[in-house]
Write a structure and sequence with these properties.
Elements lengths: L2 E6 L2 E6 L14 E10 L2 E9 L6 E8 L14 E3 L10 H6 L1 H15 L3 H23 L4 H6 L2 H8 L4 H13 L13 H32 L2
Antiparallel strand pairs: 1-2, 3-4, 4-5, 5-6
Helix pairs in contact: 2-3, 3-5, 3-6, 3-7, 6-7
Length: about 220
């Protein structure tokens, strides 16, 4: 995720920017056109207004300002998006066919993220990721479906799928560790780490499926 510096009321705030317009749903660099700070009970909020260069739509992001704020050590993640809620992430036909439950669960967590419900997003993504991995392993090894369903997730990653083990293990560790009162492995990890790991895995699966499809087509042509 990209970040930028916002100057407001003699302070400099380093914030993460949304990666797309929440009006037209296009991945595009939106521009900050206004900002202000307000206080609600004992919480201070920084609000940014973004304008899309494609559709000219406006939407807003809210950031909770911690005191004391040190921009060099803390980049603010938006806690709420005003405008464009309940947007689904689109996945390819292949991913939908292999793991429809992953698509459903990912978008449940994705909508929670859009609404600022960060505390439940990590575990939601982790659960969605689990279905993607196991369903893909079953797709590759259909005769072992019952065995794979009963396997521990890390064993499934290490033994049944040709994907980057380090990325998968790290993302799953973060997702499973986050709900604990005392986190053993990651005290502060940006949500983009697990998001990027999931999307990297999705794209890798799609590439592998494309290669398999091309090989199958070549064999069919050669044998006919």
């Amino acid at each position: 995720m990209t970040s930028t510096i916002v100057r407001c009321k003699l302070e400099r705030y380093k914030v993460y920017k949304p990666e797309k317009c929440f009006c037209c749903k296009t991945e595009v660099e939106t521009h900050i056109v206004s900002h202000f700070i307000y206080r609600f009970f004992d919480i201070n909020y920084l609000v940014l207004a973004f304008k899309c260069p494609l559709c000219n739509g406006l939407f807003f992001t809210k950031y909770i300002i911690n005191k004391p704020y040190k921009s060099r050590r803390n980049t603010l993640m938006y806690s709420e998006i005003i405008g464009g809620h309940n947007i689904n992430k689109e996945f390819s036909k292949e991913i939908n066919n292999i793991s429809p439950q992953f698509v459903l669960m990912f978008n449940d967590a994705y909508k929670a993220h859009q609404s600022g419900c960060i505390d439940i997003v990590y575990t939601g993504y982790r659960r969605a990721f689990k279905f993607l991995i196991k369903d893909y392993a079953i797709y590759l090894n259909p005769a072992q479906e019952d065995t794979i369903k009963k396997m521990k997730l890390l064993d499934c990653i290490n033994d049944k799928i040709p994907l980057n083990k380090e990325i998968l293990n790290n993302a799953l560790l973060i997702g499973s560790d986050y709900p604990h009162v005392v986190r053993k492995h990651h005290k502060e990890v940006d949500i983009s780490v697990i998001e990027n790991a999931i999307m990297d895995t999705v794209h890798t699966i799609e590439r592998q499926l494309s290669v398999k499809r091309n090989i199958d087509n070549s064999l069919y042509i050669a044998n006919n």
